[in-house]
Design a protein that fits this description.
Rossmann fold, single chain, 12 strands
């Protein structure tokens, strides 16, 4: 079943193509029929496949990849499932980020319900470690404890080829642990500021370990469309610039900053409003869905391309 994000992006892109007086067909490949579709890529004339999900491996060109972030690279995997960051589009692949719609537009000085929001899973590291006891034998378990407590757990996994467990599994658990630890550190850094966190809750001890838990409000993770509504009601989203929420948040009048950058904007609402106004204008000018549609047309003007299917 197509995700709400995929449906939303497809609708917005279709409207943009309508304005250009062009037809557009979206083929949903997130319903488990991906392998069956692969042979259809080798057509004469060749077709373009458009998808909004990052699960590509071994695709034959041409293929358009709709990115989950602002990165111009692709996220592929090798035969062992280890993630490979491709910072330059491969031959036959093209990567684009989501556009923004004027329907999202909200003035940053509007009254807003949420001061500071995060969209992250809320995982208690101690509880997470307990789950490893059922997954790993004692030797691997001891090594895993050492890995997550090292200065660079990801590098520790990549450099250790002595374990029988697949490297991709170890990377997943190490990244999950680091993410959980980072969220807790971020929340603790805001003192008495109200923080609203949206994400799955794993472990009962997560909230009790925070220093300022009386100011923390937990919510379950939301659908893509409901998340957009939260951004319309938020002053600041704590996220990295590469986050898929970066553009829609700014369009909705919500400032996006990393944790260490938030304090000046919490203390000075006018500074936040001025910066959002400046960035919002640029986002709407450069990243509209009409611009995305035009980028697609430019790509498809290449000799081998005749249609999106």
């Amino acid at each position: 079943m197509a995700s709400s994000r995929e449906n939303y992006c497809s609708r917005e892109l279709e409207k943009a193509f309508d304005k250009l007086d062009l037809s557009y067909t979206h083929v949903c490949l997130s319903e488990g029929n991906f392998a069956d579709y692969l042979p259809k890529l080798h057509m004469d004339p060749p077709s373009w496949t458009l998808s909004f999900e990052p699960f590509f491996e071994g695709l034959g060109p041409p293929h358009l990849f709709w990115a989950d972030s602002l990165s111009s690279g692709l996220q592929l995997h090798d035969k062992e499932g280890v993630s490979i960051a491709c910072h330059h589009p491969l031959s036959g692949f093209h990567s684009l980020s989501d556009g923004v719609s004027e329907e999202l537009l909200r003035a940053p000085n509007e009254e807003r319900l949420f001061d500071l929001v995060l969209f992250d899973p809320l995982i208690d590291c101690a509880e997470l470690e307990k789950t490893w006891e059922d997954l790993f034998d004692p030797t691997v378990l001891e090594k895993m404890y050492a890995i997550v407590r090292s200065s660079d757990p990801i590098q520790a996994v990549l450099q250790d080829d002595s374990l029988s467990v697949s490297q991709s599994d170890l990377l997943f658990f190490a990244q999950e642990y680091l993410r959980a630890k980072k969220v807790a550190q971020v929340v603790d850094s805001f003192g008495g500021t109200r923080v609203d966190l949206f994400g799955e809750h794993v472990g009962n001890n997560w909230l009790s370990r925070l220093k300022n838990r009386e100011h923390i409000h937990l919510h379950w993770s939301l659908s893509y469309m409901d998340s957009l509504e939260v951004l319309k009601q938020s002053k600041i989203l704590v996220a990295e610039r590469e986050s898929p929420w970066f553009l829609p948040a700014l369009a909705a009048g919500c400032l996006v900053v990393e944790a260490h950058e938030a304090a000046p904007f919490l203390n000075s609402p006018q500074k936040r409003i001025e910066l959002v106004n400046e960035l919002q204008a640029e986002v709407l000018h450069r990243h509209s869905w009409e611009n995305r549609a035009q980028e697609l047309m430019n790509i498809m003007e290449q000799p081998a391309c005749t249609s999106i299917s």
